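Dear support,

We are seeing what looks like truncated structure output for some complexes. This example has two components. We would appreciate it if you could run it in full and send us the complete C-alpha cell output so we can diff it against ours.
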Amino acid sequence: MKIRECPTLRHELPVRPCQFPSSRRTAFALLLMSVFLAQGCDEPLKDPALPGKHTVLSWDYQPAPANPADPLWTDVSAYFNSPDGRVTYTMNHVPLHGIVRYPKGHGPFPLVLVVHGNHDPTVSSEQGYIYLLDLLASHGFIAVSVDENFLNGWTWGEMDARAIVLLRHLQRWRTWNSTSGNTFYHKVDMNRIGLAGHSRGGEAVTIAWLFNTTLNSPGDPDHNFNFTLRSLFAIAPVDGQIVGDINPHTGMPYTNVPAVIQNADYFVMHGTHDGDVSDFEGYRAFDRAQPVSSPGTATKSLLWVYGAIHNQWNTTWGTADPCLVNPAGQIISATDEQSIGKAFFSGYFQMTLQHKHRYARLFEGKVRFPSMPGGITLLTQYQSEDRVFVDNYEQGPNLATGSFPGVTNSNVSGLLNPYQHYTFSDDGPPFYLWEQTDGLVASWNSTSAEYEIDVPPTLAAQISTHPVLSLRVGQIFESPAMKNTPGVNQDFSIVLELGPSVVTNPLHASAFNVLPYPVQTTPCPWGGGPKSVLQTVRIPLHEFVEHHHNWHLHNLSKIRLKFDQKPSGLVAIDDFQIAR
Amino acid sequence: MKRISAFALVSLSYCSLLAGFPPAQAQANNREKAATVGLNSYEIVQLELKSPVRLRDVGGKEQTYERAYLVTLKGTFPRDQGIGMELFIGDYRVPEYGGTKDGIYFRIYDEKILNSLEGKDFRYRIGRTEIRSLEKRFSTREARPFKTQKE
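Here is the complete output from our reference environment:
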C-alpha cells in the first residue's frame, strides 16, 4: 500500500504531544484531534496498534522428539556449553521451536523473528510476545517468536549462541520458502527480514546481524547465512555481553563487537523504571548505529518511556522486575506498557519492511495514536537514513569547528557557561548521560545566551534535498537542581540568517517536541539511577520562511539557538544535522 | 571449531541435585536475591569427558581434551536476569558459566590456565559497575589430588 507523504508535520502536534492533560474532556478533545491530525493527509495514517486487515493463522514448529535427524534439532555447543541445571537439553541437541502467526493469503510476506531474553528457563518466555505476533500478522507479516529458553538461567557467555539460534531459524525459513509443497512455499519475502529481541535477546539481534556476514560460510550448512536483514528492533536490550566471548572458529574473542549496526534500521525502546537492565545499555547500541563516519543508509530511532519497567514488555514475565526502581508510584501498568509497545512495534516494521514511511512520524514524536495511553511521557529520537551532519562533535574537543567542512560554531558573548565538548558516557554525576558519543553541554543564566553556527554555501546548497533541521537535545539532570527546574519543560528559540539581510522569525523548540526534565529514579544494586535522555527536535526548514516568498533557504548563512525562553538551563546537544 | 559430542555433561551431572529446583519464584524473592552477591565456597573436580572435546586455544591452535576441570561456586549471584555478571579469577575472565541449584559452574580445559590462576582473587562485575572482589582466592592446593567425576 502506498501512502503519500504529508508536506508538513508541525501541525500534527498537540500542544503537549507526549503528556496528555488529566482533564478527561480535554483529553477526549485532544484524542479526537490527534486522530484527525494523525490522519492528516489524503490517506489516513492508521493506528498501528489496531489489528490490520489480514486474517491471522497460527502454527507452531518444533522437532520430533523421537527423530534425532529432524533438521529442527541443532547443535550450538561450539558457542555455549554450560547450560543452567534446570535445562533438560544438551547443547549439541537443542530445538528450533517457534510460535508463528501469519496472514492468510499468498504473500510473499515480510518475516519478523522475535526473541526473548534471559529468564527462568522453566518459563516459556517465547509465549510472552504472542500479542505482538498477532498484531504483526494482521498487518501482513509472518511473525515468529523464537524459543531460546535452553540458553536461559544463571548463564553467561551464551550471547553468541542466542544469535546463532536466530540464524538457524532463518535457515529453516529459507528452506521452507523454497520447498515446493510447503505451506510457506514462496510465501516468505526473504528480502524483507526483521529481527526483534528483548533484554539479552535485544543484543542477540545485533549479534545475529553481525554473524550473518562475519560467520557466513556458504559451504557449511550450519553457517550458510547471508540473509537480508533490514530491520532490528531492540526492547530494553543489554549491550556488550558479547565482548570477551570466545569465537570458536578462532579461539580468540570476537572482533568488531559490540556490533555497530549499519545498512539495517535500528530501534531501541527502554523504560525509566527498568529494574533489570537499569543502565539503559541499548542507548550505546543506538549511538553506535549508523556511524557518523559512514554515509547514511538506514534509520535509527529510540523510545524512552517514563514509568516503563523491564519485564512487562513480555506478558509471561510478571509485573515486577528483579529490582524495584523508585518512585514506584510512577510505574505504569502492563497494559499501558504493552499498548505502547504494540504501536511502536507495528509502526516500526510497517515503516521499515513495508515501506510505509509516514510512520516515521511516530518515531519523530510527531503523532500519538488513540491506542496509546495518555499521561505517559515518551521521549523519541529519530535519525533518517539520509542526513548531513552540521555538528556531531566527534571531531575532537575544538567546539569552534563543525563536522561539515566550513561550519564554525561560537558561544556568542561567552554567555553559555559551561560551554564544553563532553563525552556523554557518564552514568551518574555530573550529567547522567549514559551514552557512547560526544556532544555539547551548554548552560545559561541569561536570556541573551546564544549558540551560533555559521554554515557555508555548500551546506545551504543541500537543503533542497535535506529539508529538515534536526538535533538531539535534552535537559540534564542536576543534583541538586540549579539551572533546570524539575517538572518543568525546557525551551529555546531557533532563528536562521539567510544572507546578510534576512533574519527569520524565531521558532520555538517546544513547538516541535517537548523537552521534559528527567525522572529522578533510584539505582539498583548493580547500577542505574537518573538519566538525562535527549529528544530529537526536527523542524521542517520551510517553516522558517513561510509567508516570505523572497526569503530563500539556499541563502542560509547562520543557525542561531537563542536561549531566551527560560531564565536558565543546562542542556546536552548532539547530532545537529539537516536531513530528509 | 570445537566439537563436543553426545554428552549430558554437567547439566545431566546435576540433574539429581536439581530435582527439587524451585520453579519461578515470586518477584519479591528475586528482588532480595538481586541485592547481594557473595561467594561462600567453591570446589574443583576433574571431569572425565564422555567424548573428547576439540577447541582452539588462545593461539588459535586446535587442541583435543579428554578431561576438564569443573569449578563449582556456591553463593549468591544475580539470577535469571538480563543484566549479566562477569566472573574473573585475577585477570582471567571466565568465558562462560551456567547455573546450579545454589550457584554457578564453569569448566577449564587447559591445565596451563588452571595453574596460572593459583592464588588469584575471584572477582565480578555486573553491568557497568567496577570490578569487585568476592573476597576469596582461587587455589587448587586443597583439591589436589583431584576427585574425578564422570561426565
